[in-house]
Write a structure and sequence with these properties.
Elements: H1 4-16, E1 22-26, H2 27-36, E2 41-46, H3 48-73, H4 75-78, E3 95-100, E4 113-118, H5 125-164, E5 172-175, H6 183-198, E6 202-205, H7 207-213, H8 219-226, E7 231-233, H9 237-249, E8 259-262, E9 267-271, E10 274-278, H10 290-316, H11 324-353, H12 359-380
Parallel strand pairs: 1-2, 5-6, 6-7, 7-8
Antiparallel strand pairs: 3-4, 8-9, 9-10
Helix pairs in contact: 1-10, 1-12, 3-5, 5-6, 7-9, 10-11, 11-12
This protein binds ligand NPW and adenosine-5'-triphosphate.
Ligand NPW is lined by residues 2, 4-5, 177-179, 207-208, 211, 236-239, 288-289, 291-292.
Length: 382
């Protein structure tokens, strides 16, 4: 979780001309972000400390379960040893498996967790009793884990509701800058993205949200986003590599309707088999945060696109036919225009600040750059 990145993205959108930006973040990051700008609305929707307490509790239960398994492996607490004769049912070489299912796989697991119990070597009544006691404790721990999983789902659902409640008031949503890589934050992001697709909200996916999508457990979500035409992904070199690996591992061959802005010396804006190249000259320094500035700038341009599309859908009832073909082309062009804005702003900022240029300097140039581009456009149109 970072405070700088969400601020850069949000402030960039404001400087492009957006009226209001709300940052949904952790309680821990809320105050610094708020202090960067009085203009930003900042909402603390979760607490990393509380999220960690869920992971700690889960870790504690799992450790207890592992302890139980080890005790089972030791021959039932004194009930048996390596030389002990074994019953037919519980042959010494047998490894039984206990599946621990919690509401959702914890910390990156897929499906349940499996812990091996080395053959339960119950050789006499005492051993059987001890084993039965162990199994009893195990069942109780499993129950605890289930209950915790359910509590966690309710907790995550509450955060998701808090964020999605605002959807009707939004034109676009950017997810990723400064998100961090906490597994429970990923669970929240996953559900928010699913709800945003259902609500047909314009989505800009960047930074850690792209890292999340490269994980195996989010493959379906990645596929959903790849076929969602109102999604723009903004990967840097590493993020693009990870996404490619994720997609090539299991390319469902589905429709590729979203836009990918692959950042680099030349930004490439890709829609299915079409590619636009932003060859505008930038600055000579690639300071941290320019990617966040781009994510915020694209978000502003996509918000304007969403407004245009809404107007056209409305007009459609009065016989204006919405042209799907032109919609994606306009989104492609908007993403390209946003990349041009950031390159131009970086160039001016670098000319002024040279080595000391920071993302804040780039943000400071956005307003003039957008105005100049608008003037150029007006002058070009007869
Ligand atoms: N002030 C703030 O709050 C800021 C916060 N930020 C937030 O940080 C989070 C993580 O973002 P990220 O960019 O460090 O993560 P990711 O892309 O996984 O890179 C991991 C490693 O891969 C490498 N690497 C990356 N690009 C490369 C390239 N083009 N060419 C070659 N190598 C490249 C590079 O490895 P290195 O070169 O250091 O060995 C890098 O360290 C995310 O939430 C973001 O929003 C930032 O926005 C900055 C401002
Ligand atoms: N190799 C490069 N040469 C020149 N400019 C570059 C290069 N790579 C990126 N840029 C510029 O920096 C912008 C952001 O790309 P970058 O790869 O720094 O994103 P990022 O790593 O996500 O940024 P952040 O530091 O915000 O996480 C690009 O849109 C482009 O304008």
């Amino acid at each position: 979780m970072y405070a700088g990145a969400p601020y850069y993205a949000a402030e960039s959108a404001l400087r492009c001309g957006v009226d209001l930006v709300t940052v949904y973040t952790a309680a821990e990051a809320c105050m610094p972000i708020k202090c960067y700008s009085p203009e930003l609305m900042v909402r603390a929707v979760y607490s990393i400390e509380v999220m960690n307490s869920y992971l700690d509790e889960e870790g504690g239960i799992i450790r207890e379960m592992e302890g139980e398994c080890r005790r089972g492996g030791g021959g039932g607490g004194g009930g048996g040893g390596n030389d002990a004769p074994t019953t037919k049912e519980t042959n010494g070489s047998d490894t039984r498996r206990i599946a621990m299912m919690s509401g959702r796989p914890p910390i990156g697991g897929e499906g349940g967790r499996y812990l091996p119990i080395q053959g339960g070597e119950a050789r006499n009544d005492d051993g059987v009793e001890v084993l039965a006691e162990g199994l009893g404790r195990m069942t109780s721990l499993e129950g605890k884990l289930h209950a915790l999983g359910e509590r966690r789902e309710v907790f995550i659902g509450g955060i998701v509701d808090d964020i999605t409640h605002a959807f009707p008031t939004l034109h676009a949503m950017c997810i990723g800058p400064g998100l961090g890589r906490h597994p429970l934050v990923f669970s929240v992001a996953e559900k928010v993205i699913q709800r945003a697709i259902e609500a047909r909200l314009m989505l800009i996916i960047d930074a850690d949200a792209l890292f999340m999508l490269s994980l195996g457990e989010y493959r379906d979500l990645l596929e959903d986003l790849r076929s969602y035409e109102r999604c723009v992904m903004t990967p840097n070199l590493m993020e693009m590599r990870r996404l490619r690996d994720a997609l090539s591992a299991d390319d469902g061959g589905g429709r590729r309707s979203n836009i990918i802005v692959q950042k680099g010396n030349v930004d490439e804006i890709i829609h299915d088999s079409y590619t636009m190249r932003c060859e505008e000259e930038g600055g000579l320094k690639r300071c941290g945060g320019i990617g966040d500035v781009l994510a915020g700038t694209i978000s502003a341009f996509m918000a304007w696109n969403a407004i245009l599309e809404m107007e056209e859908t409305h007009d459609a009832q009065n016989d204006v036919i919405t042209n799907k073909e032109s919609e994606w082309q306009r989104r492609l062009f908007a993403s390209w225009a946003a990349a041009v804005v950031v390159k131009k702003a970086t160039k001016v900022a670098f000319q002024k600040k040279k080595r000391s240029m920071s993302a804040l300097d780039v943000i400071g140039e956005i307003g003039d750059v957008v105005n100049d581009m608008e003037d150029d456009l007006k002058n070009a149109v007869p």
